[in-house]
Amino acid sequence: MTKPPLPDSVSVPARQPTLRQLRGFKEVARHASFSRAAQALALSQPALSAAIRELEALMGVALFERSTHHVRLTPAGLAARAQIEWLLNSYTQGAEDLRRLLDTQSATVRIGCIPSTMHLLAPVVAQWRQRHPDIALILSDHLNDELMAALGNGELDIGLGLDFGLTPGLAAAFVAEDDLVAVLAGTHRLARRQALTWQELKSEPLAVLSRGSTYEMIVSTLRQQGSDLAATDTLNYTDTLYSLVRAGLRVGLISRLYTQGQRQDGLAIVPLQRPRLTRRICLMARAPEQQARAAVRRCYAELAERLRVHNVE
Description:
Blueprint: H1 19-31, H2 34-41, H3 45-59, E1 64-66, E2 71-73, H4 75-104, E3 107-113, H5 118-131, E4 135-141, H6 144-153, E5 158-162, E6 170-185, E7 196-197, E8 206-209, H7 213-224, E9 233-235, H8 238-246, E10 251-255, H9 256-260, E11 267-273, E12 278-286, H10 294-312
Parallel strand pairs: 3-4, 3-5, 7-11, 8-9, 8-10
Antiparallel strand pairs: 1-2, 5-12, 6-10, 6-11, 6-12
């Protein structure tokens, strides 16, 4: 018997991917192999292959290139990977939060930042904790690329870091502008200058921190200025950099935020010009329309307000 057509006013909900399909996609992308992914999921390979075919049919696009020798993500699969991982992480975290909420009547907000901004973040987080003792906070520090990835895949709820172009689905509130400076021993011949150009440091023994976006900015600028990168020390820790600078062995190149959490006795902090390099510090989270957890929305709004006030002061 033929079913009568649905009235125009009745819309049929679109089918949604299942957790089994999404988990299958994640493991195949991770292992680049259907057989290894099936083992990780405790599924038969035919069942996993069927789940991936169903997901591709549902999405209307091929997610994997398959041959007898390899399994690779298609461009569409690469584009979808971060969102699918975020959906799975959000589901897992949401289920854990629900269990914790029902057990302890509390919620959790996971906040990350790049190391140079922790001294900005910690005081306002402490104020938030006093006002909302029922909300559990988890704090962590990350390199900026790691921070952006964790926000994108749902491992973090809120991040304070550098805005070099936001991942789709993220929102940002500008907090501060951070510039690169030279750190010199107080006895250095250039220590009393109001500002320095990069060319004036060309012949100086330099030291920079080894990782992250700031390192890439500095190295690119030194290369443009014709500096000898082989004579520049690349260090892992700020304490090492400051020790070398205090002893007069090196001139440090670092972001100004890194100088604000350090003892400045015996040091001179001098702005760098021509070119002046700056970084935009932003508080970031999932866009409000994609953020279902009220505790995260409330925390993000209050931290953004307090960080802006702190920066103005």
